[in-house]
Task: inverse folding
């Protein structure tokens, strides 16, 4: 009997990250990511049930914005 398995989703627009995964990606403590969320300065997040999740594409966009902002200040 053949079973079909769903291939993993590699699309950044639909890949969801936890706070811990975002923290690992940006190499910051989870508490910092939660604080950014509280201030509204971090990457866009939303609740999925009781969990807070981030779209990978939004985190990458947010990082790009931070990089551009930093380069315009130091450039």
Result:
């Amino acid at each position: 009997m053949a079973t079909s398995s769903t291939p993993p989703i590699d699309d950044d627009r639909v890949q969801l990250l936890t706070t811990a995964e975002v923290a690992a990606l940006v190499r910051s403590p989870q508490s910092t990511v939660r604080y950014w969320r509280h201030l509204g300065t971090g990457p866009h997040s939303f609740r999925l049930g009781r969990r807070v999740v981030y779209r990978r594409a939004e985190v990458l966009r947010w990082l790009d914005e931070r990089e551009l902002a930093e380069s315009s200040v130091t450039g």
